[in-house]
Amino acid sequence: MKKALMKIISAGLVMGMMVSATACSKKKAGQLVMATNAYFEPYEYHQDGKIVGIDVEIAEAIAKKLDMELKIEDVEFDSIIAGVQSKKYDIGMAGMTVRPDRLESVNFSDSYATGIQAVIVKEDSGITDLDALLEGDYKIGVQQGTTGDIYMTEDPMVGDARVVRFTKGNDAVLALSSGKVDAVVIDNEPAKHFVEATGGLTILPTFYAEEEYAICVNKEDTELLEKINKALRELKEDGTIAAIIEKYIPSEG
C-alpha cells in the first residue's frame, strides 16, 4: 500500500514538474514579454489589428537596446502586477503609476512620462468643478485597479459606496453616457480621446491628481530593471521618448 502511494505521489510530482516546465517554456529566450491593457489611448490601444501607442513604442525601443524581441500580452489591468509578480510577464507597462502599495509587490523603473487624473462629466450635468463632484452624492465610474479607482476609494469625501468599477475605461465612459454613473475619473489623455469619440461629454477644468508613469518589474529581476533604467536614460538623452510622446500628444501652439 505504501509503495503504491509513493508511486502515485512520485507520478504527481513528475507531472507537476512537467507542467511547470511547459509553462516556463512558453516564454522564449531573448523575448521581453510586456503585459498591458490596450484600452488606454494614446498609451496603448488597438489599431488595424495591432496594439500601438506611446508605451508600445517605448517598450519596442527598450527591447531593441536590450537586443530582445518584444511580445505584448493584452490583459485586464488589475491582473498585470500579479502576472509580473508570478513571472508570467517580464514587465508591466500600461500608464502605471508608482504607488507604495504596488511597490510591496513589484519594483518600478525610472519614470518616463507624466499623467493627470481628469474628470469626465456630461455637458449638462451641473457638475462644474472638482469640489462639486466630491461634495455631492454622485456615482463615480473608474477602471478597476487603476489609480483613479484607488484615489476615489481612499478619498474621505467619496469612499467605496460611491465608486462604480469597470474592467475597461471605455465601459466606464459608456456608463456615464447612459446615466449609470455621474462622472468618470481617468487619466487625462485617454479622457480626451473618449470625449472626442463620445458626444455630450466634457472634461472638468480642474484635475484630481498628477502622477508619474513607470514600468513594473519582478522584484527578483534586478538585472533587468537596471538594463531598463539604462535604456530609458539613453532614450531620454537622445530625444527618442520625447519624440514618441510628441507623436501621440502634440505640443500646443
Characterization of this structure:
- The protein has 253 residues and is α/β, with parallel strands linked by helices.
- It folds into 2 domains: 28-112 and 214-248, 3-Layer(aba) Sandwich (D-Maltodextrin-Binding Protein, domain 2), CATH 3.40.190; 116-211, D-Maltodextrin-Binding Protein, domain 2 (3-Layer(aba) Sandwich), CATH 3.40.190.
- Helices cover 41% and strands 23% of the residues.
- The chain is built from 10 helices and 14 strands.
- The protein has helices at residues 2-25, 54-65, 80-85, 100-103, 130-135, 147-154, 169-177, 188-197, 222-237, 240-248, and strands spanning 31-36, 39-40, 44-47, 50-52, 69-74, 91-92, 107-108, 113-122, 140-143, 163-166, 183-187, 201-203, 209-213, 216-217.
- Strands 8, 9, 10, 11, 12 and 13 form a 6-stranded mixed sheet that branches. A 5-stranded mixed sheet has the order 5-1-6-14-7.
- Strand 9, helix 6 and strand 10 (163-166) form a beta-alpha-beta unit.
- The protein is globular, with a radius of gyration of 21 Å.
- The termini are far apart.
